[in-house]
Design a protein that fits this description.
By secondary structure, this protein is an all-beta fold. It folds into 4 domains: about 30-230, Glucose Permease (Domain IIA), CATH 2.70.70.10; about 235-360, Immunoglobulin-like (Sandwich); about 365-475, Macroglobulin (MG2) domain (Immunoglobulin-like, Sandwich), CATH 2.60.40.1930; about 495-580, Immunoglobulin-like. Helix content is about 0%, strand content about 40%. It contains 3 helices and 36 strands. Strands 4, 5, 7, 8, 9, 10, 12 and 13 form an 8-stranded antiparallel β-sheet that branches. A 5-stranded mixed β-sheet has the order 15-21-20-17-18, with no helix packed on it. The longest helix has 6 residues, at about 110-115.
Amino acid sequence: MKKATFLLAMVISTSIFAIQSHHTHKLLEKKNEYQDDGDQSRVFNSSKNNHCLLKFRIPIELRYLPYGYNTLYFITNYVDQDPGINSIKDWGGGEWTYDSHRGTDFALWPYPWLTMDMGLAFAVAAEDGIIIEKVDGNFDRNCGVLADIDENAPWNVVKVRHYDGTITIYAHLEKYSLTRKAVGQTVKKGEFLGNIGSAGYSDAPHLHFEIQKNGEILDPYLHDLWETKQSYLNPIVIGGGVHRHYPKLNPVTVGGGIPNGVETVDECSDPETIYSHYRFKSGEQIWVTSYIANQTPELKFENEVRKVKNNELLFGWDPSIVTEPLRNRNFWGYVWATDGGWYYYEAKLGDTSISKTYFYVEYRKILGLKILDFDPNGDFFHNTTTENRDFKEGEERTFVTYFHDANVGDQIQGEIYSPDGTLYREWGGTIENKEWTFWSEKVTFDNGDFGPNKYWVFKSQYNEDEPEYTFFTVSNDITNKSDNSLDEDQTLEKEKLIISPNPVKDIVHIKIPDNFYKNDLEISIHDLRGRKVYNTHLKTKEEGNNTMLDLSFLNENLYFLLIKDPNSGGIVFKEKLVKLK
């Protein structure tokens, strides 16, 4: 039994966040995907004969908005106004277009594939008219790098002719989602035409909206054809969310800047997983994310978490500014809350747009359970070294219950149950000092029910509160050792292994004693959440016992350097590593 007294830290470092800018304007590699060989339509003329008498509505609708979101799309590309080849200009004088682009692109974001698969976004008729063309049934999940996509891939599209001769085009639609109305039937302004997809020459779900008249392209922005006037820059917080894990995303479509080591989608067209969550317990990690479009230099991008009661600030990240307008950005961070009650996460873009998401924290004395292979300290929030919950018979582990707001005389109880439900070990006692923050017990598994798919249970209870549980496995497999494998009593002594410099800015040098070990070693670096952010092998037989690691890509923070025997998987050395800017 081991007890200790440490103070509890309740905030995270300001370095635990990321904001990624994502330019979408210099896309000259895209082709004239909308120009048929026989179509001589031009973007650049607007004669009196082509004067449009209509005022159009925005051609995209949402079935509903997820909690915390103001929209699920933004405009990525306008009509290209520059007639030259390999030169671009949009209607506002910027470069938010690509060469010879003939329409306006409304891109689903930040969760394009989930939004598509749920049918949340669909095209609607921008004005009354008659359907003159429908193309359906074509593949609708094109994605990835445009150079790898067939530029002649057919799209799914609806074309509508209006009473003054103007034609509107709604393209890249999801197959088999198009309106049931046939060519020649009429549609009303705002009537459903089809769900947004990624058919044709497209790298992600979006709606291409195009206006033609007498063979020429009309830009609804340049010619003021919207029924509600639209601005060139429309700064907006697209939305914000609260999660139990960081969402499973495609780093390309979200714009990059995601945390190191998080799980991402397997295929570029796989739907995202959001992990939205609005009820937590004291000590549980609370992830927050937000997404904005069209930030301008005068607008600060601010993110903070507050308690509803008295509007007390729990944590706020440094505001972010830009030096030039940016099309879209994303933010992520995480916090822990110990006090019970209602909280809200707010993302704000100046005073122009706000997203607010409320969540509840249930007060619990126990902050969390951990199974460690080292003696714990008293700080639950910073004691985040990787936990190995699959260990071998005969290995010793420390089972730790972290708690807060302790009172002298409180009771703590710990139990371990084997896979068949039999009580294997129990311990407990009385809190003797209100400054105590954890109770730990060392346990060695030398008999019992072993196997990789047989789950043991670690249960802990504080007073009469509801117990907390976590799971682990114990294996009785023993790896056969060759003559040159690591001896059981052989470890890398800290004073004999050189890691220099530490703290490190860019390059760290590692030297292993020449007489220590003659096998290959696995060297990995883990962040405070236990995520592996760097991994390499030192081939001592061919490369010697010296190596250099380029860590310039890592953010400023505290990390852990681990050296393992790749044959047994055992850790032979572990050390803190401080990364500087």
